[in-house]
Amino acid sequence: MNPHLFHGWLLDLYLDQEDGLSLWFIDQETDERVRFKQPFPVQFFATGQNEQLRALWKELRKRPCVTSLQRETRQDVFVADPVEVLSIGVDTPANQVRLFHDMEEIFPDMTWYDADVTISTRYIARYGAFPLALCEVLVDQAGQIQALKTLNSRWDLMPELPPLRVMELVPDCDPARGQVRSLGVFSDRLRQQVPLDAEGDFLHVIDQAILDYNPDILVTDWGDAWLIPFLLSQSENTGIPIHLNRDEGKTVRWQKETTYFSYGHIIYRPEEAHLYGRCHVDRKSAMMWSDYSLAGTLEMARVTTLPIEKAARVSPGQGISAMQVITALERGILVPYQKRQVEEFKSGMQLIQSDRGGMIYQPKVGLHMDVAQVDFVSMYPAVIIQGNISPEVPLPDVLEPASSELGVVPATLKPLYEKRVALKKKCREYPPEHPMVGSLKARAMALKWLLVVCFGFLGYKNARYGRIEAHEAVTKGGREVLLRAKEVAEEEGFEVLHMYVDALWIKKRGCNRPEHFNDVINRINHRTGLTINLDGIYRWVAFLPSKVDDRVPIANRYFGVFQSGEVKVRGLEARRRDTPRWIAAIQSRMIEVLGKARNKRELRPCILEAFSVYQEALDQLNAGRVPPDQLVVNGKVSYALEAYRSSTAAVRAARQMEAAGMSIRPGQRIRFLYTIGEQAVFAWDLGKVFDPALLNKARYIELLAKAGGSVLLPFGIDPKLLMEWSVRGGVQLMLKDCLI
Question: pTM for this structure?
C-alpha cells in the first residue's frame, strides 16, 4: 500500500540507536498517541592543517558509519574569510556522537564544528518542527516517515495546541522531612490519594491510572530525587510493573547531577529522570516553575525547540544558545564546538571607557507620592536588534548599525522580542480575571527570561556566539538610551527620582493619571527609537538606603504600591531565598497593610496597623507559637565542604548531613534552623524530630526586626531603635512630621 498522510502535533523526539529517530505525535483527528521512526543522517565538520585533515580522512574511511567525506568552504563568524573544512556525513545521530568522541581523542588539535548540536536543534533546522508543532507527515506502512512539513510556526501568537493530558503524582509530604504515607494522583478525570503498603499493591493502582489516562506530561514533586527512584525500586522488589515510559522498550533515562557557575553563583542540578514518549516535569527541579509554570514551560520549549523535559529544567541561557545555533544552521554558518576567540587587547583607558555596565542613577532616598515608573520593553535585546550587535558584524556607532543585514544574535532575538511585545498587548485585551490572562502572562514571562539572558550570553566566555566587545556595545547603547530618556523627562518638567538600567521613576506636580504621561512617553520613544511603556503609577514608593550606612542609597532596594493596589518589592528580605517563610510573610503583610493607603492622609493609620502586625508577630515568636518549619533558612554551600576555613551556618548544617551519610555537592541548597547550643544550627533535611525548645529565638527576633525595620524606616522608625525595642523594649513609635 502507498504511504498515507498523517496530521498531528509533535510531542517527543529522541535518538533511536538503530533507525535514527523516534517521534511521538498526538493525532489531530483521533486523539491517539502514535510513534513513527525516521532515518536522520547528519554531518559535522573539522578543520586544521592539511596533514591533519589528510590523516583524519584516512581514519574516517575505515568507519562503516561514515557515508560521505568531502572538502567544503564554510563561514565561521569569528574568522573573516571562509574556512576550508572536511565535511563528515554519518548514517545516524547516535553513531555521529560516538564517532566524534573517538576522533576528538585521536586528533585533539583539530577544530570541530556542528559536532555537539542537539538532535532537536538539528531537526528544526532541517524540517522546521519543534515541540507541539502541528505537522503533516507522509508515513509508510512500516511507520517510517518519508516526508514532514510543519503547518505552523514557533512565532504564532495564539497557536492551535493539542489536547494535552497532564497527570500529577505527588507524595503527601516532603520525603526528606517525613515518612510518605500516600501518593496523590490528580488529573482532569481523577483525584485520588493512594496509600502506600508494604506489599506494593499501590503500584497496581498507580500503574492502572497511568495506563487508563495515558498522560503526555507527568508532573511530580520530588520526582527526580525521590519519587521516580522509589517507584522503580518498589517495582523491582515486588515484581509489579509500572509503565512510566510510553515507549515500553525504553527504561528511564537518568541525566547525571552537575554543578556549574552562572552569573556569580554556584548552581547545583540534581540527577534528572527523563522518560520516552511522555514528559516528566519535576516542579521541585524545574528551573523557573515558580515564575511561569507549565504554560511558560511549553512556550519555552516551543520557541527554543528544547524537549519539554529539558526546557523545564535548564536555564534560559541554554534556551537562547539553542536558538542561536538554529539561526546559524539555517544560514549555513558553522557552529563551533569549543570557541577559541579571545578578547581583543585594550589599554587601561579603553577598559575604563568600554567596560562600564548599565546606567544607574542613585535614587532619592525616602517616601515619594504619585510617582510613575516607565520601563523600556526588553531594553538590551532592543538595543541589540536596533544596533545590529553580533560577534560577526562591525560594532555600531552607539545605536546606529554598521550593517543592514542582521547578524546571528539580532536575527535570533527579533522574532522573540516581537512575540513578547505582542503577547503583552494581547493580554491587555482581556479583563484581569479572564482565564486567558494567566496563560498569556506566563508565556510572556518565559520569553522575558530568554531576552534577559541574551545580553549576558554575549559576554559569556563559553557562549558559542559571544564576544565581549559586543557585550560592551550593548551596555554603551543602553546608557545612551537612558540618558536621552532623562533629558526628555526633564525637558517636560518632570523630576527624575531614580534610573536603573532600563527604567525611570519620574514625578511632576499634578500628574497622577496615565494620560498625564502620554506626551513624555511618546517623546522618549521618538528620541530613542525604542519602545517605552508606563509600568504603573505608584500611590507612593519608598527608596531605601544601605543597611550599613543610611547616607548611601541602594539602587535596587525599594517598595511601593501602584494605584491598582498591586504591591511591588525589590531588594527586601521577602524577595530573598534565604529568608524564612514566616518572616517573609510578615514583611509582605506589613507592606500590604501600608498599601491600603491611597494618599498621604491615609498613611498614618496604616503605619500604626503595620506596626501592630509586627508587634503581634514578635509576640508569637516570643511565645513559641511559630511552627519550626516556617522558620527554616534556605542556605547554600558554594564549594566542597573541606574547602571552607570558617564555618557558616549553612556549612555547619551541611557537615551534619555529611556525618549522617548524605552526599553534599557544591551549589546544593541546605535547609536549617538556628538553635542554641554548640552547633547553633539544626540540619532540617536530616529527617530527625526537632525539639522547639532548642530554637534560638534571639536570632529569629533579630531577623524579624531587620525585616520590619526595612518596611518602617521610610515612615520615621529607626531600624536600630526597633531592634533595641524588639530585644529589650522601651522605644516609642515616632513618625516623621512630614511625609514627602
Answer: 0.87
